């Protein structure tokens, strides 16, 4: 299998290298606009990488944030940060230049990376939805059975399973020969069967889980709101229970915003994917909706900054270098 995979990759590279001899079309924009586009691209990459890196540092450093839910947030931030490092820069350059200017080897590498990281982000959000539903529907069972180490095992299993799936997807769908780069393009064309499998596995299944569970989460959250009002008329001994329920409800609301934005960025791409099998779609438009999926990785840190006070505190402590102080990991950030 390894020998066949190697042979297929070499064949694809030899074929696509012939296409690289074509020159890209000349720019149709002025130099000032061209420079401005690259400045904006650099700002997007910087926001994505630095924003998600701050989330990673916050969750890893502060002991108070070592919770099962935050392990999923950490996993999402890692995948988003890697998208900002390996996927978004290449996609933005491709859009600005209106041509694939990199080598055939990097084309194959870029396709593998973007497929894997995008799929991982989708399933991370689905796991967050499952986590919130479990936490709200069975809070006592959740706290007793789901530890940080257990969640870390779940996260690692998710990454390995998706890596195996993406390798299988690329291998069985023509052994990488379906890479298209003539002239100045870099696409991976799935056959009809694998296109349907990929659509069901990477979009329909996780999105169905996300939507169904979050509808149930908000139904439960409404019941909790009623319960909190009832508890407030009792003694202060029940105040901690009410505060806990209120905290869980607020977390579900914020994560609901995160999921809604995610689905908003994801749906256009998969609609284009489905329509692409029926009608001819302009490649420029397809690149834009694909970039919208990647830009979700830039939006997530902004959502955290707007709705999570603990994230703002962690950012302040990180930027002022207070995390290097003795026992800074034990500081309260909640």
UniProtKB/TrEMBL annotation:
Membrane-traversing stretches: 35-60, 72-94, 100-129, 141-165, 199-221, 254-271, 291-311
Bilayer topology term: Multi-pass membrane protein
Keywords: Cell membrane, Disulfide bond, G-protein coupled receptor, Glycoprotein, Membrane, Receptor, Transducer, Transmembrane, Transmembrane helix
SUPFAM superfamilies: Family A G protein-coupled receptor-like
UniProt keyword Secreted present: no
Domain of life: Eukaryota
Residues covered by the G-protein coupled receptors family 1 profile domain: 51-304
Gene Ontology molecular function: any one: trace-amine receptor activity
Predominant localisation class: membrane
Subcellular localization(s) per the UniProt record: Cell membrane
GO cellular component, one term: plasma membrane
InterPro entries membership: GPCR_Rhodpsn, GPCR_Rhodpsn_7TM, TAAR, TAAR_fam
Cross-referenced Gene3D superfamilies: Rhodopsin 7-helix transmembrane proteins
Protein family per UniProt: Belongs to the G-protein coupled receptor 1 family.
Name under which the protein is recorded: G-protein coupled receptors family 1 profile domain-containing protein
Source organism of the structure: Pygocentrus nattereri (Red-bellied piranha)
